[in-house]
Amino acid sequence: MFFNMFLKNVFQQQFDVVLILGLPIRHRDVLYNVAAVVSNGAIYGIVPKENLATGDVQYENRWFSGWPHTRVEKYQSPSGTKIPIGGIIFQAQGLGKIAIEICEDGWKGIRPGSIYTLAGAHILANPSASWFTIGKHRTRKSMVEQISREDHCVYLYTSLLGCDATRLVFDGSLFIANDGAISKEGRRFLFKEDFEIIDEIIDISVLERARAEEGSWRQQSEQLLNGEYGAIPPIILLDGDFHSHAPPQIPRYYWLPSGESSPDPSLQWLVEADLLPEFSAMDVSHIELELALALGLREYTKKCGIRSVALALSGGRDSAMCALLIDRMMHYDHPEFSREERRMYAKKAFVTAYMGTDNSGSATRNAARALAEEIGATHYDGAIQSAVDTHLEIMKQMSGVALSWDNQEHDIPLQNVQARLRGSLIWMVANIHHALLISTSNKSEAAVGYTTMDGDTSGGLSPIADVPKSLVKLWLLWADRFHDYKSLSLVIATPSTAELRPQEEEQTDEDDLMPFFILDQLMHQFVQFGREPLELFQVLWPSLQKHYANQPMKFYAHIEKFVRLICFAQWKRERFAISFRVTAFDLDPKTGYRFPPVQAPFREELAELKTYVESM
Questions:
Q1: Residue 99 near residue 113 (C-beta atoms within 8 A)
Q2: In this structure, are residues 384 and 421 in contact, taking their beta carbons and an 8 Å threshold?
Q3: How far apart are CA 409 and CA 533, in angstroms?
Q4: Considering only CA atoms, which of 422, 466, 421 is closest in space to residue 573?
Q5: Tens digits of per-residue pLDDT, 81-127?
Q6: What's the rounded Cα separation, in Å, for the pair 267 and 127?
Q7: Residue 202 gets which letter from DSSP?
Q8: Which site in 64, 313, 564, 615 is 20 to 30 Å from 240, CA atoms measured?
Q9: DSSP-derived secondary structure letter, 455
Q10: What's the pLDDT tens digit per position in 240-251?
Q11: Residue 368 in contact with residue 352, Cβ under 8 Å?
């Protein structure tokens, strides 16, 4: 009767969605707790629960039987239709492959869902009736995150809401987890509504790439194909097109984790030891970045017997972040020091230099001096214009070429000679102080080669080489507030600039390249997910359309520039100094990003993108 009611009121209607409906059915005179997959007026399959909840207030085995994992049979419905029943995967065009584990199935060490995902399922749905106890919600959330991370899947968890069993209250936990992170969470304890609905647009190609890159995943998937885990679940195709017309939401800052709601207790000892002030959940990611890089600097210098470090302090953001990380390293490594004692220690262990030309401004000079003084570093303030002029004169004597800013072809050599002379001089400063030279290149500029070889790339250790420029800016804004460095406001007030062109040109890094928040998103999608130019546009355009005032050719120009530069700059990345890995992907050719330095820079793909954009 229950089944017939669904047939009459639900199944015969036409839907453009896939429904997963829980119900009991009797099959071969045995009662099972199942989920039926319904779409377009038809039942495509039935998945029974495999692990019965028994113990405490649970007594499911009084009525139901657990379904053997590898079994697939035919169920004859009251209308006479034969429907597959058992461990089944469902494939829907536009949704991907979907599998189901019911309530208790998700809590077991050996879960049916793991086999489904190894067999190709992208989405695991778990309809549950999990009653409330204090603190249980956090346990559910942790479980859902872990499953989605281990199985590289989207995990949909829904639980009962209300009071259906008198003594038990159901708080209605509702999660969408994507590859280890909760991307959406529903409201609990609703009084006026009977149910809660949440939704999320997710790109399952990202999951497929994560699986393809993980050796252990490929190994276990092959073991499944070889029959080591039992029968391979069959795949049932659902009729219809279930593509979403809404694009996935791309986070502006990919490195920020989602779902931070409370301070990390593992860091509270730093507060108790007076190494950090009280902090909130919003501070955790910045604190973690600081601690990781400070620890890397400390371990590298201490274990290698390095007693001092040198840094070209330009007054800009990259060198400022490096300087502050060195100061924080000394703070954590010598907690017994007072602020003044740490400054006295820095006088011997840290040397900086500002090396200005006629293109340098007083703002960066003053910012560099103030920051060095606040930290306590030995600071040199030098002028290298005479050295630049000498080099230009020697070049003229050698080649007969008088380099001039009026000639566009001379722009790069005139900029690079300044950076390389600074590199030579800061090496001399480091040698005099027996110091390790710190390189200041960030990840975004490394990606597109916006750096001078043997100039600002000089150094033996590059602490922020895996820190995107957008994060450099955010971290400095945070450090200004959290650590209260008085001089940092001078650095933040100055736009990011190399100061290599004449001052009247008002050169900025973003004018030379593109806005860094766009560059960083292009880098993330291109490197982490391997997206080609057309895919870059299709994925990012919906969220960037407003920024470009609905002019897609402007975004095309940035994509074309980015792809061309990242391909060309691989030879530079081959020569960069040692760095620390702190984000989800790196650009180091020796470890993570084995990108061929000799190749055509996606010419055909860029032409395809241009045709696509022009047709919009």
A1: yes
A2: yes
A3: 29
A4: 466
A5: 999 999 999 999 999 999 999 999 999 989 999 999 999 999 999 99
A6: 36
A7: -
A8: 615
A9: T
A10: 888 877 777 788
A11: yes
